[in-house]
Amino acid sequence: MGRLGPALLGVLVAFDGIQRQLHPPRLTSLREALRPRAARLDAALEETAAWASPAELADFAEALLASARHAARGTELFLGEQADSAGAGSGIEGVMAALHAHCRAQATVFPLRAILPAFDRYFLEAESRGVPLAPVQAPGARAGVFNASNEPNQRGGFSLFVPEDYDEVKSWPLVVALHGGFGHGGDFLWTWLREARTRGWLLLAPTAQANTWSMNGPDRDGPALESMLDYVEERWHVDARCRLLTGLSDGGTYALLHGLREASRFTALAPVAGVLHPENFNNGNLGRAAGRRIRWIHGALDWMFPVQMAREGASVLEDAGADLDWVEIADLSHAYPREQNTSLLDWAQAGPESG
Hints:
With 355 residues, this protein is of the alpha/beta class. The protein is 41% helix and 15% strand. The chain folds into 2 domains: 4-112; 142-354, 3-Layer(aba) Sandwich (Rossmann fold). Strands 1-2-4-3-5-6-7-8 form an 8-stranded mixed sheet, sandwiched between helices. Helix 2 (27-49) packs antiparallel against helix 3 (58-79). Mean pLDDT is 93; it is low at 83-89.
């Protein structure tokens, strides 16, 4: 266990960096950097396979092993050494499958954080890793990670994180994070959990009804998203002054489409690597953009939605009177800039005076 834990943690940290640096020309160097950590994890798993855990540690050992197996599976897929059950190899399907495995590894090891300090620190922002948090609450408590019809093979549900120190006496800011096309809320939750946990935010990660958000044709996801908000607000004390809607790629595009709708409950919008959908010109959203706080984050190297397209969309919103903050990241491709989460939460919570 002394070897398996650090090896697993090393792969988790490596994949965090991979997610941020994803760009087709970088794949070869990212794979080469991952190989030593993948080999270390494989060796630790092989050694651990011959070890029989004491009965009283069986559940703990199985959870740690399951997380390590997910992580090892992710390295195999990312390195292109083995296809998954759907045939995804070293191409984009393999990369996406690898990132899914990375998320499953996090989900499996997260419940062990109370007895594995290194993993507890992993799920915190760096500057807070020496600050004790509230004890992990027992099953049935009103804090932790909850999944509502949101297993990996399900669509249309949601995952929710409530910080361990949740207290009904005060109101809590809420971030709703929308995954990209062909993504899943149960995975995208982990893109935000560290910052939500450190800073005391409720975190809602819905899953689209179909493979992506309903931006063409009938809007099936809008009513579902509103029902999810109702569910959360009926059971937890949400701060109505601070509801942030954000999303990646198609999720960012839909965040604007849904967040500018009439009677929107969101106080701030933050599309990442998305575009301004043409429907915004037809449904009255541009007329409702005046005064709305929007922080648009986009990579200069984005190959799916070129940055010029995003700049034009941001300009349209600004001309419509939106309080728009444009953030262009020089080295970012079509990937998620995790380092922006902290300033994004600060911006959303500070209100209009934050600029």
